[in-house]
Amino acid sequence: MFAEPFTAIGRVIVLTVCGLVLGGCSIPDVVDGSDARAEVHDLAAVITMGTLPAPLVPDAVGLTGQRILNPDTHTGGRFGYLPASDAFGEHVDAFVRDAIQRQVNAVGVAYEPNATREPAGLEDRACQQGTTTVAAALASGDGLDLTCDVIAASGSIAGERVRAVQGTAAAVADDRTITVYGSTADGSATTGDGLFDDSRREEIAQAVDEAADRLGLGDLLGGSVDDGTSGDGTEDGGASDADGETSGDDADASAADTRLSLLLQGTTIAADGSAAIPVPSALLPAGHAPVVLAIPADALDGLLGDLGRQVRDAVVGQTPFDAGTAVPVGRQHVDCELVSCIAITFDDGPNDQQTPQILDILAQKQATATYFLLGRQVQAFPDQARRIAEAGHQIGSHSWDHPQLTKLSDDDVRSQLQRSLDEIEQVTGSRPTIYRPPYGDVDDRVRGLAGIPAVLWDVDTRDWSKPGEDQEYRTATENAHTGAIVLFHDRLDGTVHQLPAIIDDYRARGMTLVTVGQLFGDALAGNSEFMDHRATAIEPQG
């Protein structure tokens, strides 16, 4: 999709905004009237040429790569999450979701995460260096392409730039970028827009518009943006009076602020302390060549907020990256409404034979699973139960000793579950919040007595019947699909032997291995029964 260098399409214009600290004289925090207008004019008057800073190598910060491919909506691409920051992933998800919404609106077809039927090389999920800085040129047909680059890796600060290009083979309809910076020290994160001091937004907006007008870019921040995600194309339609009517001035101000956020969200801090901001195509005159606004280091300091200065100082300091405390895969952020997820589960453990082998495989593959453990096995092999928990896999109860719960009295059902839950909590330090009834045998009475979600499955590998390793592989892969819960047993050599190839198959088809908790999120609650997960479709709007 990406061909020539970003600067090859046409002139790249860089607005160098300086003057907050000019000639050694600080500008007061509050200026009025003509003084304020003069300062804005000074900021807008200093204009130079430049380019986006080169991205870093993809593995610089250890992002957890994601890959989506949806032929129905002509959507594909990749992006990454920072393991140490859920907030980082949430910012990325919001940008990706908005991009998909625009594409869905354009093609009139709903989006759901999906996987291919056969391996399609989708296990390669890392950002591809340079794909956010080159010219957009869609290869064929209507489509949305998402790309990513690592842009910061210094101290505890990591940065990612994600780009969404939408259009056809003949023309690019929309091209916009977001940068997300996150801290591995405290998990905080912000987009490029959040780097700036809120009290400086009006100055920035006026200076950018004045400079853009002088460069022939038109009224860059005036009007509204039809971004395909809401009826009026803005996040806020303006203030309303007592009759619910929105005033024109308030609506214009709201639209301008929305456009400013759209512009600033792509801000990249360079190693010299300057900032480069690729202008979204939605803000430019139709058919205009790409434009980059650049703010030099001396001016940028006065525009940044506290978090922005923290990011700037880290990027300029160029210290070795600190990934922070390792976060197990099963506890990392993932959005199964956007990416294709699948949960593999293991029953009947733990033991001292197959359990450690399976855990080794999962660690080697950087994969996660959900274990439904028998209380008596936890009592017999506490070290293995602790190892499961410490590796970040989810644990649920599988009763004490595997009886058919629907055949037991109320007291015995309670005993089977409570003894198991108590034993797991005592050994691992955490009490499970889900269970799997032995044989999948559950009814309303058992569900009510349990009081926590019952997790079943919709792909049964039948490994317990020892069908032969080839057959087990075929059953596990041919029936797998997005949102599936796959049943294995933690006591069979055949499962140990086939597991690596099964995991590879899932990933090559675009599926991400998650725990049951990650698969369902907040929906995993109450005493309901869960068998598989169907993502909420992103439907066309307007």
UniProtKB/TrEMBL annotation:
The keyword Cell inner membrane does not apply. It holds the Pfam family Polysacc_deac_1. The keyword rRNA-binding does not apply. GO terms for biological process: carbohydrate metabolic process. Residues 218-228 have a biased composition (Low complexity). Residues 218-253 are annotated as: Disordered. GO terms for molecular function: hydrolase activity, acting on carbon-nitrogen (but not peptide) bonds; metal ion binding. It comes from the Bacteria. One of its GO terms (cellular component) is membrane. Keywords: Hydrolase, Metal-binding. Residues 242-252 have a biased composition (Acidic residues). Residues 340-514 form the NodB homology domain. InterPro entries: Glyco_hydro/deAcase_b/a-brl, NODB_dom, Polysacc_deacetylase_ArnD. This is Polysaccharide deacetylase family protein. It comes from Pseudoclavibacter caeni.
